[in-house]
Structures are given as C-alpha cells and as structure tokens.
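Incident log, entry 3
Record: Homoserine O-succinyltransferase (312 residues)
Problem: checksum mismatch between cached and fresh output.
Input:
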Amino acid sequence: MPIRIPENLPAQNVLLGENIFTMDSQRAASQDIRPMEVAILNLMPNKIETEVQLLRLLSNTPLQINVDLIRINDLAPKHTPQSHMDAFYHDFNDVADKRYDGLIVTGAPLALLDYEDVNYWDTMKTILEWANRNVQSTLYLCWAAHAAMYHFYGIQRKLRDVKLSGVYHHQVKDPHNELLRGFDPEFYAPHSRYGYINTDEYESIEGVKVIAESEEAGAYVVASDDKRMVFITGHPEYDPETLADEYQRDVQAGLNPNIPCNYFPGDDPTQSPLVRWRSHGSLLFTNWINYYVYQTTPYDLNQLVEKNQHKR
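Fresh output:
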C-alpha cells in the first residue's frame, strides 16, 4: 500500500521517479480501510530534502499511511520557500486536538545550544507532552532524541570537542526486539552530531533499553519497553550525498571539518560515497510502523488519550 501525502507536494514527483508508490488525497478517499495516521514534525532547515528522505522510508510498508507535516512556528527556514510551508505544513495548534498512530520528530541544527536557549523550546516541550497523550508511538531522530531524553528523564547530553560525522559500524544488542527484526548482527548507520549520552545513562532509566550501539558512535537505537518512544541518535534517513554536502558546507564556512569516517573510499572527498546503510534504515522504519505502531494502536484513535494517560 502507498503513503498518502498532500496533493502537489514536490516530494511526490521525486518518489514517483524512484518507482515508489504514493497516493494523493482524492484517490485515497476511495479506500475502505483505516489508514495509519502519522505526523512529521520537521525541524530541519531544508524541509523538502528531509520530506523526501522520510517519506521514502515510510513507503516500504503494505499499510496505507496518511502523513501530516507539522511546523513548530510560521517562519520559513532559509532553505525552504514560505510558499511551500504555507501550502503543505500544519501549524501545531491546528492539529493539537488530533490523535496520531505515529509521530516522527526530526533532528535540528542546534547541537551547541542549551535546550533552554532554543527559541522554540517552550513549544517543543508542549509538543512532547502532547505526543505523550495523543500519539501511540513517537520516533525521535538525532537532536530530538537527546531533547526528549532531557525533557522526559532529565538526562543532559554531553558535547564532543569534534563533531561525530561518518558511517559507523554497529552491533545489535537485543536481536529479539521487534524493532530490529530482520537485521544482521552487525550493520552500518550514518551519524552527524556533537551530542552524546552514555549507554549506562540510558539503561539507568526503568523501562528503557539500548538495543543497538556502536563502539565508536555509542548508543544508536534506544526504545521504551511499551514501544511508545524510540530514540535514534543517528540518521538512517540520510541520502547518499547528505554527509558529503554537510562536509562541503563546513569546508566553505571555514570550519576545517574532519572528513566523514568510513564514507568516502580512501577518505578521498572527490570520490563518490560508499553507501551501506539504506537497507537497514528502510527496515528500521518498516519495523517501527508495523510492530510499534500498527500492532499496538487502537482502531479508534479516540481511545488513545484514555489508554495512554496511565502510562506515565
């Protein structure tokens, strides 16, 4: 089954060009099934690029998914036209009374800022609490994963002196966890961040487990036992060239960045990147949608509030 996205969203043409099945609202209206309702809170500056990356991963499921794009405020970021934001994004206040099967909260380029200094932190806290009441399962990516750990559990991330950037080797710690069903015991995943939280800090939280990690990059997939929260510290959604684009951006800004690890053949930035994470990224999102969302969510989403009020 396809994902259902807003009609005329630019990502639709990109995905169709990759032979990925999408469906607009008019065609989806004829389907006599209950689709999954998934929201994406997109905090990345290049909204369109991130939309394509996430929608691509959500498309590999037999379920029909209705996708709502949510913005945290009405300001258009530098790399996205205001017209795009106005046409395709919902203000959070417009969906605050809605319930969702799943929510994805992206990373954000806020690595060196204290959470309390982020200009939308108060709104972010409101959304996190709203998700706890109105969403069956939430997937937090990179900065959002650390922000959610801070908000819900009071664990403050630490900062590296040098940015962690590259594609790192990981090990599955809990092969029986449904989120990692079908994974090889070892796999690769991209990271691009300064922040980190030690594995023992995650595991000090009752009902939270690190289920995949890396000797170099640390904890990667962290999940709550009730399947309601998943914390991904890397970027399984990244395109082949995303780390290269970030590296060239930092070079041009005079930041003298390190070459991303295990990414360019021979550590030569003139070479095409070696891509070895996309199958695991696709499987991770498919497992989340199937086992953490579809298999646990009530058919009537109005039951979510009653069900989840007793969780925390």
